[in-house]
Write a structure and sequence with these properties.
It is a single chain. This protein is globular. The longest helix is centred in the N-terminal third of the chain and has 55 residues. By secondary structure, it is an all-alpha fold. It has 13 helices and four strands. The strands form two sheets. The protein has a two-stranded antiparallel ribbon with strand order 1-2. Strands 3-4 form a two-stranded antiparallel sheet.
Length: about 325
């Protein structure tokens, strides 16, 4: 009797295990079915074009003819015979060097101002974030061109005060500055991330520092900056990657001129691909850009151990 009861219990246990496995299998199957559209889209629209681009970078391909394998010839020509590559890369580095720190500075400054407990602060946050919603659009670039043109709004305002305007866009000495200013103006997303980081800093730290007699500037240097350093690092990485890909503003406002002073790398890549139809060459340029951005990202991660503070580690990263 006891043996029969034991056998029945084991059989019931086995049936439950089988039903559980079947239910789990159904759940997994449903998950695969729901994710399959995204997976198919990723394979066809992302992974396959990336693989194609890598292959085409080793070919002579003009869209009008079949690709012809040339090995590393495109890369050799880029680094040895292409002065425009060097020029566009230097312009892009200059753009990144100024636009990223300026955007970080102003976004942090505005985030700290918006972190105050004042009436109507939500309205101010929305108004300041709004430019980022229309940020890199063609309409904004066209507006910027009208503002900084020789007969633009900026020079009209200066004329009211008797000041002679200049060709902000047509002058090689100031044209890149207008693009840097536009990129800096679109700091809304960076500001929101900084604002979220500021709200995560424990107020007890500020209160304790105030009790100890620390001035506001001291509290900012000793508390705000270290506690906010992971957020700064995140914004820095995104800023560098995004700035290296800047295209719309240069394409709409200046077309890379005057005298190639705003001829950024992405614009050069675009013209090689869709103006000169050198798809193989353009693919090689794209992979070089990827390598440059990846290298800078690795360098930033390596350097972060010396200045990024993580609260869980009780100090700087190790």
């Amino acid at each position: 009797m006891v043996a029969e009861t034991k056998t029945t219990a084991e059989a019931e246990k086995t049936r439950r295990a089988v039903r559980k496995r079947a239910k789990t299998g159904d759940t997994h199957l449903a998950g695969y079915i729901f994710i399959s559209p995204w997976l198919i889209g990723f394979l066809l629209l992302t992974l396959w074009p990336i693989a194609q681009s890598f292959y085409l970078s080793f070919t002579d391909y003009s869209l009008l003819e079949d690709p012809v394998w040339v090995g590393t010839e495109n890369y050799v020509n880029i680094f040895t015979n292409d002065s425009t590559f060097t020029k566009s890369l230097s312009v892009t580095f200059l753009f990144v060097l100024f636009s990223v720190p300026l955007k970080l500075f102003f976004s942090l400054l505005v985030a700290m101002a918006l972190n105050q407990k004042l009436k109507g602060m939500n309205l101010y946050r929305t108004a300041i974030y709004f430019p980022s919603l229309i940020g890199g659009s063609i309409a904004v670039a066209a507006l910027w061109r009208n503002m900084f043109g020789l007969d633009g709004y900026i020079n009209q305002v200066l004329a009211w005060f008797g000041i002679q305007g200049v060709g902000w866009i047509s002058n090689p000495d100031t044209s890149l500055g207008t693009l840097i200013l536009l990129n800096t103006w679109q700091f809304g997303s960076t500001m929101v991330i900084f604002l979220a980081g500021l709200k995560q800093i424990p107020q007890e730290l500020y209160e304790s520092a105030a009790v100890d007699g620390a001035a506001k500037i001291r509290r900012f240097i000793s508390i705000t900056l270290p506690m906010l350093s992971p957020v700064m690092f995140f914004n820095l990485i995104l800023g560098v990657i995004g700035s290296f890909q800047t295209f719309t503003s240069a394409f709409i406002i200046t077309k890379g001129g005057p005298v190639n002073s705003t001829y950024v790398y992405a614009l050069y890549l675009y013209e090689k691909a869709f103006k000169h139809y050198q798809m193989g060459y353009a693919s090689a340029l794209a992979w070089i850009l990827l390598a440059i951005v990846a290298l800078l990202t690795i360098v930033n991660f390596a350097a972060s151990r010396y200045w990024v503070f993580y609260e869980s580690e009780g100090g700087g990263t190790k």
